[in-house]
Design a protein that fits this description.
Helix content is 31%, strand content 18%. By secondary structure, it is an alpha/beta fold. Helix 1 runs parallel beside helix 2. The two termini are 16 Å apart. Bound molecules: D-xylitol-5-phosphate and zinc ion. The site of D-xylitol-5-phosphate (DX5) has 21 residues, from strand 2, strand 3, strand 8 and helix 7.
Amino acid sequence: MGRVVMKAIVAPSILGCDHGELASAAAGLEKDGADWIHLDVMDGVFVPVLTFGAGVARSICSKVSIPVDAHLMVECPAELIESFAKAGCRYITIHPESSEKHIHKVLGSIRELGCSPGLALNPATPPDIIRWVADLVDLVLIMTVNPGYGGQKHLSSMHSKVRAVRRILDESGREDVLISIDGGVDSSNAGKLVDAGASVLVSGSYITSSSDSALAIESLKVTR
Ligand code: DX5
Ligand code: ZN
């Protein structure tokens, strides 16, 4: 049997799109070849910016047939997961740096709601936490910028964290868990990220400010 060639899953973030037209922007990105749509949900407390809630997520989910990946940058994720699950999001990712004290429990609740649970790690958060939730998650999101804004410089110092998380997941028997990278992803770092163990590349400004988003999406579909 030959080696299975896997292409990176490309998940455009619609953070930089016109917020009056988010559902049609998402539908356009699906047409342009996006594999998933990434929603940056910000509550103005966990990060200074306030974006949108489950109502907007619902209208986006109704306009696309690809998976919608909700990244909750919020202080109280437990209060929001049900509304994002009901809105139709496939993946719901929460942060251990939020004020939620029972991350392990909330990841289980996301699964009970019929969604795939994800855990996102801020740049200064060590990877070891993944060992203790490896049986609960379908996705680990590694932040390669500090959360809050699109268009920031990619932190390549996080690439060793990608390798460390991949190792922890493999040692825990969870080779199937997806590692997603979020922040400053473009065609210059996509190959290195996939080599380090990433399967999902979230990309905002590189795709949405490009003059040809289909070409930008294609350029991130690197193989490993
Ligand atoms: C940052 C968000 C990211 C970001 C991606 O808080 O989680 O999804 O907006 O945008 P770029 O690719 O421009 O860094
Ligand atoms: Zn994000």
